[in-house]
Amino acid sequence: MSIFIDGRCGICGEVLPIGDAMLDESTSEVFVPPMNPAAVCGLISSPAHWACWAAVPDRLATIRKWGDRILEAAESSPFLQIVRDGMEALLLAQDDPSGCRLIVMPMAVGSWMDVSSSPWPPTWAAGLSHHRLMHEIERESLPRVIEELSGPFPTPEAAWRTVDWEPKRALERARQRDQIEKKQRRDELLDIHNEACDRLARLATSVGIACPHCRRFLKGDFRYLDNRPNGRSCIVCRRCGGSFGPEEAGVQAP
Ligand SMILES: [Zn+2]
Ligand SMILES: [Zn+2]
Q: What is the pTM for the complete model shown?
């Protein structure tokens, strides 16, 4: 999980015991909220001491809100799918370059447990998630989570089989196409501007034009910043220092 935090607990404000290894979840003292904390914020928007989090009275209501946000985010995400939205746990599948991952969020805890490379429930029951020790409130919630998930999904593969990535891949392809089209349109507009600016600079050299800022007549006394092909070209008036392009000059250069 990659998030920016300032190293202080999101609940009590004291420094978290994580030093430079801010996101080292191997320490069981730091609770990291799921996904992007800014998006699921609510009660806390950054990691916290497990002890502080465990003592929050309306923790369950907050987690339910997070669950709803995650469901919404998964709808439009090309990489995230809800496998099961249960009373005890949210089971999610995440598609990333290293393969697909299964993530469990116990609804009594709100933590984000990557369980894809753990043998299914037996390891969880021992109190180990993929890469850290479980906190006490996670361990307490486990029997109920395991009971809820292991019925419909006796193995991780059984959970995988319920997930169809094709609609998500189509979503991602559409998003990429859209980005390419937008970039092409931006490039076209930039080319149109820059060509017009080039004609304007030639006109300002040969015939002269009025500076749209100081209104003085410029013939040669300007700088032409030719930023083709990737930047936006402009003309800088040497009299007033103002910069402009064909749009501001209001000149249809031939
Ligand atoms: Zn704290
Ligand atoms: Zn000027």
A: 0.65
